[in-house]
Amino acid sequence: MQFGITKQFHNFGAAYQMSKMMSKKIKPIASIYIVDHDFVYTTSLKKAIEKPAKYYIQTFVTGEKFIAHLASQNFRRNDIHIVFLGYQFVDDHEHNLMNGIEILEATKVINPNIEVVMLYTPNEATFGAYARNRGAYAFVPKNDTIFLRINNIVMRVVSQKILEQKRRTFFIAVKIFIVYFFLILIGVAIYTLLSS
Question: What is the per-residue pLDDT for 14?
């Protein structure tokens, strides 16, 4: 009888450990923001992102709400942020709100390291060069290939940012090594001078 109770407690302990491991949150590798006036479109773009558990994904239907959210964030140097941004925004009363270029500019003021991908319809294609000059990472048409393209862009941005982080870490390590090397040389030189 005692053995059966011990076995039950052992199984309970293993199950508890497993649930504890499963409940640990995996830190997302990037934050993705989808900003477009069409709620259905933003939702479909969100669903099209592959492996969504790897990312923190939020949608916004106005630039004002998105900028207010960004302004409230504390950004760390190694955080990766990607914005998929439409151009034209109107409210329920057909009043024009901030347009995509204004949102892009405000985003870059808040954090210049955020990568902004402009999404455009055929009648908005003329804004591409201006958007790139203002810091847009890419200018992507809203067509049937957009679902494939956003996943490719996410993978490319994440890869580039991780590579930049590794380079930065490597250069810091090299600088630290050089400083220690010169300190050792100076220490040896001082020891040699004092011992002679």
Answer: 40
